[in-house]
Amino acid sequence: MGTAQVRQHRGTTPYTRLREEQVRPLYAATLAALGPQPGTRLLHVGCGTGTALALAAFTGADVAGLDPSPDLLTHARDRLPDADLRAAEITELPYDRGCFDQVMAFDAIQHAPAPAVAIAELARVTRPGGVVAVGLWHNWSGREASAFLSAVRGRVPTPPTDGPPVHDLYRLREVMVEAGLDVFASAEVTHRHDFASLDTAWESMMASPNIARAIDVMGVDAAHEIFVANFATMQRSDGSIQQEHLYQYALGRATS
User: Model pTM greater than 0.85?
Assistant: First the structure.
């Protein structure tokens, strides 16, 4: 299954918007580290419905976005009608070499078959001295989420990847160096998120490419059963669920 197929599994439903809002603390922290200024040429690869791009545009940056899902880009265009938004895969960016000052990608590299190749493509479109920022949701944040993802992976064939998967900051930095970037900074971002109900937490999970892939293989009922087994005991007296999230990002300078 290609990246576009994974992302389009839930298309323009509220799931993707919910997921992006959930990851907003990572977007904000990464943009603060990048420090775009008015006129900074900034590209978000895997921009989805444009949540992170909207934050970047608020700084005055000249923003552009790319996503494999035309449906998600429709929502991004509603939010950012003047932005250059294109549909394409992360491994084939439709831009000339060195045309951006800053390039960022979140929750995308770890799903690429060849992460170093994907990051090298981010570096290609970044000017020498410009910065590539790569962020991810750490797969082992939250005991229940970890148990759920482990159970799902045990039921779903793992797509082939070039080298160990990118599931943590150590491997992310390693792959960025392999891609030719000068990694000069990295950080972790923690955030406590309250879901109003078990159903809301499940909707958020369904926006994850890992879960979308599992649903394609095992069916939504089987995936939901595994989810309930791991999360139902977390419900508080009012039915809500509180989940700790750990995000990570790294910054690398393009050298050529």
Answer: no
